[in-house]
Structure prediction request, 163 residues.
Amino acid sequence: MHIAYGINPPNSGWKFPGVMTYGTYPTAYTANPDLLIGMNYEASGESSTIWQNYYYVAVNPASFSASNLLSDIEYDTYSYGVPPVVSVNDSYLPDWQNSGYKGSSHDIAILGYNNSNSTYTYYETCDSGPAACETTGYGVKTISQSQLYTAIENDNNNGGLIW
Prediction:
């Protein structure tokens, strides 16, 4: 919640604190550049001087393949214990299949991978119910590696990886 609503990095260009932007109810989103700013600001310990180029970088899906995505996820989760974040078209997420809100961009954190089953494990932040996202509920979910890559590629020109 602190990242969503409270942080305000110096020289970020933000008009309001937090990475969340709201439109007409129930529309809310976080632009990839704002998420990158927020993640670097937090990773730097909210440093006013080094956050701008601290750790995380954003990668456009046109700049990587499915094998690059797997390699980047393996590297961050195994070597650093850090979950990379991906922006996806939520229509491709298994827990969104019955949601009336699917079809837009959604950020998820990739917690791990299983190359024997060709799956990724991710954390879903949207809950079930009409006042939420109508997913199967928040928590840990799995998705095939190929389906996640497709979800990133087809994210309404917004997909990407922040790692």
Summary: DSSP finds four helices and eight strands in the chain. The radius of gyration is 16 Å. Helices lie at 2-6, 32-43, 66-80, 145-153. The CA atoms of residues 38 and 159 lie 18 Å apart.
